[in-house]
Design a protein that fits this description.
Layout lengths: L1 E6 L4 H10 L4 E5 L17 H4 L3 E4 L30 H17 L4 E4 L9 H14 L8 E8 L1 H5 L1 H13 L6 E6 L13 H16 L3 E5 L5 H7 L4 E4 L25 E4 L4 E4 L3 H6 L12 H6 L12 H19 L4 H24 L14 H11 L2
Parallel strand pairs: 1-2, 1-8, 2-3, 4-5, 5-6, 6-7, 7-8
Antiparallel strand pairs: 9-10
Helix pairs in contact: 3-4, 6-7, 8-11, 8-12, 12-13
Length: about 400
């Protein structure tokens, strides 16, 4: 299983994490953050001969002709440049074809085939597009892998009948793709970073496990750290990790609406709690002299962040994000290195139970009660879901 850095804002941190700290196995470049023809030149001081052999490109056609924002319109074949009153299959297929050629001309061997987002009631139109795209793909060779994009919104991943219909359509035809690139909304609730939606877990697991059973390769893109749950229950070929929220929780509106939200004072990811802790909540631990309880071991970035001299009030702190990248990549690698799925599930269940015990210890012994996103709200859901689907 490979871990791929999803490159967006402040992508230098990811590049440094890979080249300087051996975190991850490669990169996914987002067209939203990179101008047309920028990829393939020197980026943040790194030569294309170093990063291109381990890179992929996500052209992010998700918003179709309604796309706004970022660098997407700099790509002449992107649907953001489609000024027609309606999007036609011909213009859509032409854009996808040019995207594939662009990637091949860069010498990439792993090609993400972009696809459009269609509402559930337009599924038949989406299937027609899929069939036409499928005909563009040459017979799989040992040199190139083609990954068809699957894009799912909240409503779609919650709809079991839609998921079933989609899987039939994507697996019943004569497929030219080697695998699928899956961008799925996480169905998040207010003040939650991890989903509690059982339909999200159930249906996304069904997609991943069905595609693997059908011998397709799978890339779980825009993955949050709940990727560990899916990896414990089925094999996944690649999982993306990202620094910011929009690279860890896929949302179609990012490509069709002006971004909202405001600045954050920062988060600390603790692999012992399996959770992000708000920076201001770290004062609870400092006051009780128990920061060591949540400290990530053998993690230089964690050491820097938890030092009393660390200033959370200054922006653009790469150590915060590198701590997350290192911690989560280790958890995912530990899981993938356990080949027996039953033992893999046992490993993650033990980590969940240890995190629950630590939360309880913080409450009873140290009188630390972490609210909202920093609490243990999702651990019970994870535990129950894994036990329900364990092999």
């Amino acid at each position: 299983m490979k871990i791929l850095h999803h490159l967006g804002h402040n992508h230098k941190w990811n590049l440094d994490a890979y080249f300087d700290n051996s975190i991850g196995d490669g990169f996914i470049f987002n067209a939203f953050s990179f101008n047309y023809n920028k990829i393939g030149s020197k980026i943040s001081g790194y030569s294309p001969k170093d990063y291109m052999p381990v890179s992929m490109i996500d052209h992010q056609f998700f918003g179709n002709k309604n796309t706004i924002g970022g660098k997407l319109s700099s790509y002449p074949y992107h649907p953001a440049n489609d000024e027609s009153s309606v999007s036609t299959s011909i213009s859509g297929i032409d854009g996808i074809s040019q995207s594939i050629k662009y990637q091949l001309n860069l010498g990439l061997t792993n090609i993400i085939v972009p696809n459009f987002h269609y509402e559930s009631d337009s599924f038949d139109h989406g299937t027609k597009i899929l069939n036409k795209i499928n005909k563009l793909i040459p017979n799989a060779t040992s040199q190139n892998n083609y990954f068809m994009t699957i894009c799912l919104t909240d409503n779609q991943i919650e709809d079991s009948s839609y998921v079933e219909k989609m899987l039939r359509a994507y697996t019943d035809m004569h497929i030219g793709f080697d695998g699928f690139y899956i961008a799925c909304s996480s169905c998040l609730e207010y003040k939650k970073k991890i989903s509690l939606n059982i339909k999200y877990y159930t249906n996304l697991l069904k997609i991943l496990s069905t595609l693997k059973y059908q011998k397709f390769k799978t890339i779980l893109a825009y993955a949050n750290w709940d990727a560990a749950v899916f990896l414990a229950l089925t094999d996944i070929d690649a999982i993306s990790i990202g620094t910011y929220e929009n690279l860890r929780n896929f949302d179609i509106s990012r490509f069709t609406e002006e971004p909202g939200g405001g600045p954050s004072k920062g988060w600390y990811f603790s692999d012992k709690l399996l959770n992000m802790i708000k920076s201001q909540h770290l004062d609870f631990f400092k006051n009780q002299n128990c920061l060591d309880l949540i400290a990530n071991e053998k993690n230089i970035f964690s050491d820097v962040i938890l030092d009393n001299a660390f200033d959370w009030n200054t922006t653009h702190k790469p150590d915060i994000h590198k701590n997350y990248l290192l911690s989560v990549s280790r958890i995912l690698k530990q899981l993938s290195n356990i080949k027996d799925l039953k033992l893999r599930q046992k490993f993650l269940l033990e980590k969940i139970e240890n995190a629950q015990s630590l939360y309880e210890k913080l409450n009873t012994t140290y009188k630390i009660f972490l609210p909202d996103e920093s609490s243990d709200y999702f651990l019970g859901t994870w535990k129950a879901f894994i036990q329900m689907h364990s092999t």
